[in-house]
Amino acid sequence: MRILLVDDTLTARIFAKKCLMGIGFHDAEFIQAKHGVDALEKLAEGPVDLILTDLMMPEMDGETLLQEIKANPDLQDIPVIVVSSVGNMARKDALIEMGAQEVLGKPFSTTEIYDVLKGFLDEEDDDDEW
Q1: 130 part of a folded domain
Q2: Which residues, in sequence order, are CB contacts of 124 under 8 Å at separation 6+?
Q3: What single DSSP character describes residue 66?
Q4: Beta bridge partners of residue 103, listed in sequence order
Q5: Going by C-beta distance under 8 Å and a sequence separation of 6 or more, which residues neighbour residue 26?
Q6: CB under 8 Å, gap of 24 or more: what pairs does 107-115 form?
Q7: Is the separation of the CB atoms in 66 and 95 below 8 Å?
Q8: What b/e sequence results for 6-36 when a residue is b if at least 16 CB atoms lie within 10 Å of its CB, and e otherwise?
Q9: 62 partner at 20 to 30 Å CA-CA among 87, 95, 107, 110?
Q10: CATH of the domain at 112
Q11: pTM of the predicted model as reported, rounded to 2 decimal places
């Protein structure tokens, strides 16, 4: 499984990776991007199975990145989880309508990310491709 972590803060990307590894994504390949433009460049280099993106970033924010992903037939089926500060959580419904799998508050807990991704973990156990 390949997971793209998109956040302008290295600490946040490290935290997300540790949380994901802690809930069972031990063998995942983690690709990191600093903002939406960087993320789209990484996506052009090869497919990913899951994207976890911050909302507020320079160059291209998470909302614009989500729009770009969902508008691209080659990328639109990739699940996207948006991570947002508490002040931006009011936009959760709009982001879900735009195609986000889920919107989590920042910082999220291991339990929260597990609840969102337990289906992926079940599929990983059942399918060697994951």
Answers
A1: no
A2: 1, 24, 25, 130
A3: H
A4: 82
A5: none
A6: 107/12, 107/15, 108/19, 108/83, 109/19, 110/19, 110/22, 110/23, 113/19, 113/20, 113/23, 113/81, 114/23
A7: yes
A8: bbbeeebbebbbebbeebbbeebebbbbbbb
A9: 110
A10: 3.40.50.2300
A11: 0.88
3-state class (DSSP) for residue 119: helix
Q: Indicate the average pLDDT of the chain.
A: 87
pLDDT at 128: 42
Domain contains 67 = yes
Residue 108 lies in a domain: yes
- Res 14 pLDDT > 60: yes
Q: Where are the beta strands (DSSP E) in the chain?
A: 2-6, 29-33, 50-54, 80-84, 102-105
Q: How many CA atoms lie within 13 A of 110 on its CB side?
A: 10
Distance CA 15, CA 23 (A): 13
Residue 90 confidence (pLDDT) above 80: no
- Nearest Cα neighbor of 98 from 42, 45, 43, 53 is 53
Token duo for residue 88: 């931006």
